[in-house]
Amino acid sequence: MIIDNYRNAKTYCGINPNLDIALNYLINMDLNNLALGKNEIPDTDIFYIYQEYSSKPLKEGKWEGHRKYLDIQYIIDGCEKMGYCPINDLTPLKEYNPDTDFISFSGKSNNFFIVPQGNFAIFFPEDGHMPGLEVTESSSVKKLVFKVPIY
Fold first, then answer.
1. Where in the sequence is the domain holding 136, given as residue range(s)?
2. What is the sign of the dihedral through the CA atoms of 17, 37, 56 and 79?
3. Which of 49, 56, 105, 130 could form a disulfide with 60, with the two C-beta atoms 3.0–4.6 Å apart?
4. In b/e form, how buried is each residue of 115-138, taking b as 16+ CB within 10 angstroms?
5. Are the CB atoms for 75 and 143 separated by under 8 Å?
6. Is residue 54 within 8 Å of residue 79, measured between CB atoms?
7. Whole-angstrom distance, CA of residue 42 vs CA of residue 21
8. Residue closest to 82 by CA, chosen among 116, 125, 118, 47
9. What is the secondary structure of 41-103 as a DSSP string?
10. How far is CA 4 from CA 10, 17, 73, 93, 121, in A?
């Protein structure tokens, strides 16, 4: 897992070629004209989802993980809390779904952190995560979630 500011995104180039493409795309994209929902990065297998929502209380949070994609979760506007836990310390709730690259988990962790506007978190397949949580009370969040294949 990586947490950092948008200005430092290039620091993480070199980890994975697809991550390089996604980070460079993020650095150069126009954040003022985004279409809600799923958007593809041309000539790649990388896509991003533009979301607008209200953050939720911890009791409504859900642990999740992925196997084929890593997530870059970038906060455009607002602020949210996210949780982290190694997937080996979590218990799967259902079978992994390869079509959606999603698995939900149960478990506990004390690893929660705040991701303010202009910052991002990168979650790798070994990183269970719980995004979308309120910091002190529910607030509006605008976020990009890049889905980056790790092959």
1. 2-149
2. positive
3. 56
4. beeebbbbbbeebbbbbbbbeeee
5. yes
6. no
7. 11
8. 116
9. PTTSS-EEEEEEEE-B-GGG--EEE-SSEEEEEEEEESEEEEEEEEGGGSEESS--BTTTTBE
10. 11, 19, 11, 30, 7
Give the domain CATH number at 80. Answer: 2.60.120.370
> What is the CB neighbour count within 10 angstroms for residue 13?
15
Tokens of 103: 């698995």
Q: State whether the Cα torsion 107-111-114-120 is positive or negative.
A: negative
**SS3 of residue 134 by DSSP:** coil
Q: Which residue has the tokens 């602020």?
A: 79
**Residue 58: closest CA among 33, 76, 92, 83:** 83
As for how many domains the chain has, the answer is 1
- Which residues are paired to 54 by β-bridges? 140
**For residue range 44-89, what is the model confidence (pLDDT) as tens digits?**
999 999 999 999 999 999 999 999 999 999 999 999 999 999 999 9
